[in-house]
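Sample pair:
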Amino acid sequence: MAQRPTMNDVAAQAGVSQAVVSLVLSGAHAGRASAATAQRVRDAATTLGYRTNLQAKSLKTGVAEIIGLVGDEVATSPFSGMMIKGAQDRAWRDGHTLLTIDTGGDSELESAAVETMLSHQVRGIIYTAMYHREVTVPAPALDTRVVCLNARDLDGQVPSVTPDEVTGGYEATRVLLDAGHTRIAMINIHDVLPAARGRREGYERALAESGLAADPDLVYKGEGTQRSGFEAARHLMGLPVPPTAIFCGNDRTALGVYQGLAEIGLRVPDDVSIVGYDDQDILRDFFHPGLTTVQLPFAEMGDRAAALVLDADAPVQTHLIHCPVIHRHSVAPPKGQ
C-alpha cells in the first residue's frame, strides 16, 4: 500500500514551510501568506492527494469539524429530507460535515446517539423532531452546543428553530378573506401540538382583524388525516349555513376535504375554496385543481439550525421561520359574487 502524503510532502512540493501549509489548509493564513502562496499550497495538496487528518486535528483542538443531528424519525418522515439537506448544506459551506442518527423515538437509542456525538467531539448537536412539538433536551447533550430544530425547548436552555405557525395561519386565512369569504371554517390537526395551536391563533387573528367573530361551529377538531378531512367536510357542509371556504390544518386533511366535497357534488373552488398547510410534495399531484397551501420552510429551518450551532454567541430564543403561501387554483370568490 502506498504511503499517504504528509504535510511535509506538501510543503516540499510547494516550496514553503510545514507551518505555512498548516496555516493555509486550516484557513488561518490571512495576513501570513500571500494569495499566490496559498494557491500554490492548495495545488500541491491536490496534486499529491493530501487529505487533512481530521482525527488528529480534533485531538489537538478538542473539537471536530462535525455537527451532529439527532432526530426521532429522520429516516421515515416525509419532511426530514429537506431539513437534513438544509443543515447539511450550511454545515458544508462552513467546512463541516453532518453526522445524522435516527433514534426512531427510542429513548435508549437516543441516549446512545448523544453519547456517540459527544465521543466524536462534535461542534454541537441539532436536536430535531419531525413534527413541530415541545421537547426536553437530554441532559448529557448540554455538554456541547445544542439547537432544537422543528421543536421548542421546554426548559428554555437552548435556541430553538420552528415554523412561524401563527403568521402562517393568519396568512392562509387572509387569502380567503381577500377573496371575499366571510364564512370560513377551519379543520385543525391535533390540538395538543404547537403547530395546531399556532395555526388556529393565526386563523382567529385574521378573522378578528376583519371584524368577524370566530364561530365555534366552524372549527372542527380534526386528526390531521385524510379520513378526518373527509368526515369534517361532510359535517361542515351539512350545517344550516355551511362555510364558503375552509382552511385545513394540513394537506392530508385538505385531500380528504376535496374527496368529501366531490362525493356530495360540490366543486373546488367553484362551490368551496380551500387552503391547506405543509405543501407536501408527495401529495401535490393528487389535488385537482392544485391546492393553495402554506409551505413549511424545512430547508431554511435546517440551514438556520446549523448556523446557530456554529454561532456560540447566538441568544437563547425561539427563531421563527416564515411559512410562505403557495398560490395555486383552489381559491375563488364566493359563489354568486
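The mean pLDDT is 88.
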